[in-house]
Each structure stands twice: as C-alpha cells, then as structure tokens.
Amino acid sequence: MRRIGPPVVKLLDDDVESIKYSLASHLLYSVGKEPINATARDWFMAAAYAVRDRVTERWMPTLNRYYEQDQKRVYYMSMEFLIGRTLTNAMISLGIYDQVKEAIGQLGLDFDEVVGWEVEAALGNGGLGRLAACLLDSMAALNIAGFGYGIRYDYGMFTQHVEHGWQVESPENWLRYGNPWEFARPGVIYPVRFGGRVIHYKDVMGHTRAQWMDAEEVMAMAYDVPIPGHGGRTVNNLRLWSAKSTREFDLKYFNAGNYIEAVRDKNESETLSKVLYPSDMTERGKELRFKQEYFFVAASIQDILARFRKSHDNWDMLPERVAIQLNDTHPAMVVAELQRVLVDEHQLDWHRAWSLTRRCCAYTNHTLMSEALETWPVDLFGRILPRHLEIVYQINHEFLQEVRHRHPGDSELLRRVSVVAEGDERRIRMAHLAVVGSHKVNGVAAIHTGLMKSTIFSDFDHLSPGKITNKTNGVTPRRWLLGANPSLAKLITGAIGDNWVTHLHELKKLEPFAADKGFRAEFAAVKRANKEHLTDVIGQRLGIDLTADSLFDVQIKRIHEYKRQLLNLLHVISRYNRIRSNPMIDLVPRTIIIGGKAAPGYALAKLIIKLVNDVADVVNNDPLVGDKLKVVFVPNYNVSTAELVMPAAELSEQISTAGTEASGTGNMKMSMNGALTIGTWDGANVEICEEVGEENMFLFGLTAQEVARIRIDGYDPVPAINANECLKKAIELISSGYFSPDQPDRFQGIVDVLTHGDHYLLTADFPLYLAAQERVDQLYRDTDEWNRRAILNVARMGKFSSDRTVAEYAREIWNVKVE
Ligand SMILES: *Cc1c(COP(=O)(O)O)cnc(C)c1O
C-alpha cells in the first residue's frame, strides 16, 4: 500500500515548541511585527508561513523524485480552481493539525479567529472549479505526478452582498494582503502571441511551412502553489499564469517621450489575467475570454514541452510521459496549439504530430445543454489566432475525409460532426475540436455519460466506440468530512479507525453502528451541535433567529433555472399557505436554507434571489408562523460557507430537471455529512441511490427520458397548474404581489416563465416533489429512524471519494500507475 517515506530533506521539527518558534520567528522576520503590536491577521500570516515551510520542504523533494524517476506527468488544465482556504487543510495533510492548534493556543491566541483571517482562493465559479481542486488533492494523496495549470486571476469570484434582498456584486481583491501560499517565479516566463498574419513558404527541403508573424506579445509569468497530499509524502504543484507586458516600457512610446502611453499599454496587456468570468456557463463571444483561454494554454504547452525536453529528445516518447486532461472545452485550444508547436516550431511531420497530440489529450465534458456548449465565431478566431484557425481547418479537413471514407455519401453526418458549424455566422465548435483531438472523452456521472453518447456526441460514439467513458465525480473526504466536520470525523474514527480518510470505502464498517441506539444518539448529538453552530453564525451575521429544533433543509449551489431553486420556493410557499389557513396545524418545523451566486448578467437568477429574500421577509415575520417555518438566504456562498453549512444539513435539495445536472458534487458532500437527499433522477443522485438505497433517500419526479419526450411535443404548464390547488395558489400569491407589496409586479418575469413554456418542468414535477416532502416530514417525526438512515448514507458514500475518481482516470485515461 502507500509508503510514507521520509522526505529527502527535513529541517524542521513538528512538535509544539518548534512550531511556536516558527510562528514567532515568522511574525518577526516575515511579517515584520512583534507580539505586542501583531493583529490576528498578522498571526494568520505567521501561521501560514510556519506551515508553508513544512509544506515546502516536502514539495521540492517530490518534484526531484518525479524528475529522477522520469515519471509520467498528468497535467490538469482548468480555467478554474476553486480551492478555498488552505491553512487547516495543509495542517491536516501534514499531520500537524493538533500541534499547530496547540502552539497558537499557547501563544494566547484564538485559533478559529486566526484561521478565519484567511481569504479563500476563489478562482472558480462552482462545481467545475471545485472538481479541479478535489482532483488535485486526490492526485497528491495518491502520489500521482499531477500538475494543475490555470490562471492567477487578480480578481477571482466576486463577493456577493445582499442589499434590500437583491444580489450586489463586489470585486474580491484577494491578493491585497499578499498570498502566503504562492511563489512568484519571475524566471519562468513565456511569450504568448495574438493577432498578426501567416505566411506560407517552401523550406530548403521543399516542404511547405507556415510562419506566424507580426503578432502582439504578452508574457505569461508563473506563480506556483504547493498542493500537499494527505500524509505529506507528495506535494504537487499548481502553476498559475499571470499576464505581464513584454517590456516595462515600450521603447517606441518611450523614445517619443510618451511615458504615459507606454504605461497604459502595459496595463492593457496585463488585463488578460485580471478577472475570472463569473458565469458558470459559457461567456458568449467575449474576445477577452477567448484570449484568456489561449493565454493559459500557450504558456502551459511551452512549459510542458520544456520540461519534457529536459530529459527527452525523442518526440515519440511524448504520450508516454505527458497526459493532458482538459477540464471542459475552455482549454480545448491545447489541441491546435500542441499541433502547431510540433509542426511549425519543431518541424514534425503533420501526421506524426497529430498522432502525438491525440495520444496526449483527453477531454472531460461538463454539460449537455446546447446553450452552454462553447463555440467561437470564425472571424474572431481568425483575427486573434490566424495560424490556429488554419490548423483547425486542416484538422477538420482530415477528420471529415476519414468520416467520408467510412460513410460515403452521408453529407448530413459530415455536417453534424464537423468542427465548423455552418450557418449565418460560421463558428468553431470547441467540443468537437476537443473530441477529435483526444484519445478519451469522459462524462462525470453514469447518466450524464449515457446521455452524452445518445445525444450530443452520438455520432462520435458510433465513429469511435469506446472513446467516450464515464468517470463519476467525487469529492475529497479530507476537506469535506475530516476538515469541515471534525466532530463527525471523530465519531467515525472512534468507531472504525481512521483508515477511511484515504480509503473511503471503509466507511462501510459503519453500517452495523446504524443499528446501535447509543451510536445513533451520539450521531444525533454531533448533528445537533453542528446545527447550533450554524444557528449561532447566522444569528450573528444576519440577525435571523433560528432554532436547531427544526429540520435544516438546505439548497446551496449556483442559482440557475435548471437547478430549480424556484421549485424549492414553491414548496416553501405552499407550506406557508398551509400554516396560514390552519395556524394550529401540527407540522414538522423547517428551516429552509438557500445560498448561491447568480451570474451578474443573469437577470432571472437575480430575481430568484430577490424572491427568496422577499419570501423570507414575509414568512419570518409572520406571527402566525412562528418557528414552524423559517427561510434564510445565506449570502456569498463559497467554499468556506459550504464547509460551515454542509455539516449542519439534514435534508439535501438536489432537484434539477432530470438530464440537466451533469453530476453535482454538493449532493455528495451533504450525504457524506449525514444529510438525506431529496432529489431527482439526475446526475450523481442516481449513483448515490444505487449506493445508499432508494429507501434511504427521497427521489421523485420525471426521468430524463420522460423529460425529453414531454419536450418533443412542447409542454404546456397551464393544465398542470390548474390541476393542483397548492401549486396554483403558490403561483397566485407570487403574482398578486403578496411578497412585494411595494412593487406588486416585481416577480412577473418568474410567473411568466412558470406559466408559459416552463422549460425546466417545475410545474410537471411539483406534485411529486410535494409528495416527497410529505415523506420527509413523516420520517423526520421518527427521529431515531431518520438518524439510522442518515448514518447509512454516511456509511455508503465510499464510492464518492475523489480518490476513486482519480484512480479511474489514472488507469483508464492517463495510463499512470496508482500505488
Ligand atoms: C461543491 C460546491 C459547488 C458545486 O455544488 P453543486 O450542488 O454540485 O452545484 C459549488 N460551489 C461550491 C463553493 C462548492 O463547494
């Protein structure tokens, strides 16, 4: 099994005294303060440096080991890494959590306050970026030579405030006080070119060659972030690129005496890594976004090839030493860039280069929704990357030749699979480029992969059977159970030992404890304490009084029509109506917790947030309701908020329209923390059900097949609304302005969507959702039985460790060994 060998160099001791010494010396030498004038943030920085030292002395030997053993490297290319805070996570990975906590305590400081000063790295929107972070954690835990490549955004995900119930965004200047986890590498810097033109000429051998000229140049400078694996044997590298202008001062301007112009130019080239696009679906047609994508692709490919060339001069070794995983199509330009570099810069024969490119690349798809599939207009593409457009055309030409050869006369097939979409405006389909340029394509849950094969990629599946495979997502149990929920982790370890931390299947051993009344009581006490903690924080931060005596019903995720926060609200409003019409009704008290960010340009999602808050205002202040129903919108949902809320969740809302949520990972985190799921037959819910048993969940609603069939005929929500009195009343209440007396028609846009077309079929699923909620209430009255099932959920979540996910990628896509 995994050997935890000593690092090559170990200078620092990990006992409390040594750590105290590190803290004090970093406070003085790195922060420049003394205890007498140090703030809690200064102490956070000192603690981060003290822990970082211990990470770093394991990091360098890891990189040397890969080099000496000439290991195959896995490059995980992602525009997003939603990492969250690092300090406690690193302490846990290195096994020094207790010592550091004790050292901080002995210095007279409050540990939680010190740790609380860390600004999280929010370089991602949601699930996709968080997956990248979980996979990095697992690659390091499994001692795989996994490197992340991404962008060091000056501004990551925006901070969400709620003002008068509306979402207000503000930029998060997360680097303001310095980032203790990054190392600037001014020596690792590559040029990235944009624009210009291509000339073709014959070289001395008579081969036609292309030269890309007159391009503008921006520099990509590396910042390295260590990723410590659990146990500390392996510390991997996440390399993030930051844009720098080619020169401090453009001599052209400088010589003309125009100093200000020169500095302005510098700023413009540096905008490339300025800000993360805050939509979790594709940004359409934004030139800056296109440039960001190529910027990090071009820098990463130069870096990957430079590393390869240090120990190899035979290009044919490339696929044996390099695996490149494309997280969605955002880095799909890798396919064209790698081909370009091999052909234009290293003079490889086209077909040899193409074989190498395809054997290196693999692509992960994250969505089936056509509006989210990335395409770029040919004119924009060609203006910014003229040579790449030629290469994409050539790739497409050869691919279509092959298809034509195998399926003569099927011009419809050619049109469907082409990398170039013909139409009023020709566009490049990045998903097709990624598929054609990869040796494996994967979906992120079984149902999603199945739908991929039967819908968007069905032609590709027929052309290359076996190329499309499934890799069901997972989450790292280090952050999402051990770190976020220490009391549950302690209870589990007390029962079955701590091997589950790296072998999550061992949670199975917990199953017999579900039948143990004493254990159920301890489990209930842990959940209760987590709920009380959340109640306290919400009370302090939002001034809302909650009671831990109610069922905590949680839906936290990006706000999106397909995720159906509105369906949740329709249940809330019908519950409210029931209470109003019968104030003495004996209902299970519920606390509905909703959190999530809306893309700043997504008006309907923002209106949904406003509706949550307006409903909360009415419900929470209605004396008839009391503790029977409370509604809370938790602002600024991010990794730290998730770590706070997940452990307190009792009911996990995973209610997307079947066929729309590729996998979901929030569903896994909550179930792992002992929540029961109310959900649809969508994404990983289906596999969670296979593991934990349908009797331990509340699944309801249309299947993906039924959804598809209903949509073919065109769905009319009106009959469904008229047939269900609760639904009708709930919609009428919104429509009447009851929740928005100051502006009665405020939610007309929402009412319109529900009553005209209802694309996400909320009204079709509503009756079954309500029935499922009824089953939730009934079970919750039997506290002991509820807890038994919650324990079984935890015990059966072994499959959903990202360690399992990574091991599958390693074996079936990357072809690297897992110890
Ligand atoms: C896990 C996670 C997500 C993904 O949640 P889903 O419910 O799968 O959409 C998004 N944001 C954050 C901060 C997360 O931790």
TrEMBL record:
Family in the record: Belongs to the glycogen phosphorylase family.
Catalytic activity: [(1->4)-alpha-D-glucosyl](n) + phosphate = [(1->4)-alpha-D-glucosyl](n-1) + alpha-D-glucose 1-phosphate
Residues with PTM N6-(pyridoxal phosphate)lysine: K669
Function: Phosphorylase is an important allosteric enzyme in carbohydrate metabolism. Enzymes from different sources differ in their regulatory mechanisms and in their natural substrates. However, all known phosphorylases share catalytic and structural properties. Allosteric enzyme that catalyzes the rate-limiting step in glycogen catabolism, the phosphorolytic cleavage of glycogen to produce glucose-1-phosphate, and plays a central role in maintaining cellular and organismal glucose homeostasis.
One annotated GO biological process: glycogen catabolic process
Molecular function in Gene Ontology: glycogen phosphorylase activity; pyridoxal phosphate binding
Cofactor(s), by name: pyridoxal 5'-phosphate
Record organism: Magnetospirillum moscoviense
GO terms for cellular component: cytoplasm
Protein name in the entry: Alpha-1,4 glucan phosphorylase
Family annotation (Pfam families): Phosphorylase
This protein's UniProt keywords: Carbohydrate metabolism, Glycogen metabolism, Glycosyltransferase, Pyridoxal phosphate, Transferase
EC number assigned by the record: 2.4.1.1
